[in-house]
Amino acid sequence: MFSKTAKLLPITRRVNYTIIEKCQRGCTSSLFITGDKARESCAILTPHVNLDVRFENLELLIENVKLRGMNIDIHQVKTSWHQYVALKDYISQLDKEKTEAVAKMKSAYSNNPKLFKTYETEKDKVREKMSAASQELWNLERTAVIGGLSLPNVLNLETPVDGVEKIVHSFGSKPVSSSDHPSHLEVAEKLGLLEYYDSSYYFLKDKAAQFEMGISYLFMDKFCDTGFVHMSNSDFGRSITVEGVGLDPRDAESVFILEKDSNAKDPLSRLHLVGGASLVSFCGYHAKTITHVKHLPLRYITMGRHYNPESSNGLPGLFSTWQSSAVEAFIASGDSIGAQEEFQLCLKKLISLYENLGYHFRVEYLPPMKLRPWESLRASVQMFSMSLQQYIEIGSLSLCDDFISQRLLMCCETNSEKPLGFTHVVSGTFVSVPRLLGCVLEYDGEKFSLPPKVMAAM
User: Fold this and answer.
1) How far is CA 119 from CA 95, 127, 131, 430, in A?
2) Which residue in 110, 139, 270, 339 has a CA-CA distance of 20 to 30 Å to 198?
3) Model pLDDT for residues 401-410, shown as the tens digit of each residue
4) Binding residue per annotation — 394?
């Protein structure tokens, strides 16, 4: 239940940078700090970027970007990356030459002063070449490395690429209704269950507030009984974690920025309001960590607030709120096979839990156009809105592979002889309470009552 103070949250939906600040920022990434900004910004970590692997099947990558509707010039990124790698090799060679020149200088210092001067001149020339090459390298970092970080995750084979959602499960019969069916806002107002002002300002009352508590505890208890660990996450995340997940920390439609922190000394490390029930909060715990494979998989779950800027979907009422109560899960596995097994097992449990509520719903695999950059596969749990005559997503489960782990260095190890690997992540919003409540209100109408399973969980 939201209090009236919710409207006073110190957040801003847009940060307008001045021309001077844009020049001072130089690079456009909080995750990867280019060399020319290394003295001004603290590089907490350096993401693992290996675009050679991504470019092995160039046609598949181009098709991936096209299917997602992203505007990325893959050929330009590839060209810049090859130039970047070649230039790094060239700088390494120059560094060896400088080291050799210094060694020769030490040898000739006391024996041959004239030869010492020759070696010193040679070292200075090499240093000048390195300085010029470094400047060029920093420029390439913006198009090669940062451009590479903008590439999306590889698509899973189960993701439908024909542009049409793939229904993998359906429960109950789709309710019959007309376009003039009362909306959930009308039903809630008539029953005295909701005071709604706009998408950023509302609060639940009476049975609606009880529903919020009961449904959250129901999902939490059921998954904790199957081995999930209850977590209590931070409501805030830094820009580096936000971008590490795959969001743009400067995009007003992606994430909130704390207004008082928007002029922070280091503009690359601003504070964002994301909510404890969010993927960003979970990743904040595991960024730059190493977990032994014997401790995997990690299964975490939490309930709390989820903050998301108003989307452009134009949905009314509880279907597009800035802040919502949610149950969020995070799973880390040691390899891709284990992650896919966890995904299917978790989806099966989620379907069973929704079936126990007794309402019609369906589960779809979404096409690439509707996936977020870090998702390779997304299962969308949807209920039918009788007033809008369309399905509304009330929960989801996403297969992220090692996309996020490579960016935030979420590593795993098997033994000391093998190199570190990256954990494979499964994440999901098991239930978005406002959206579920909105659909249930339209289903039940004035006969709205708490489902028995929800009452039992309170």
Assistant:
1) 15, 12, 18, 67
2) 270
3) 999 999 999 9
4) yes
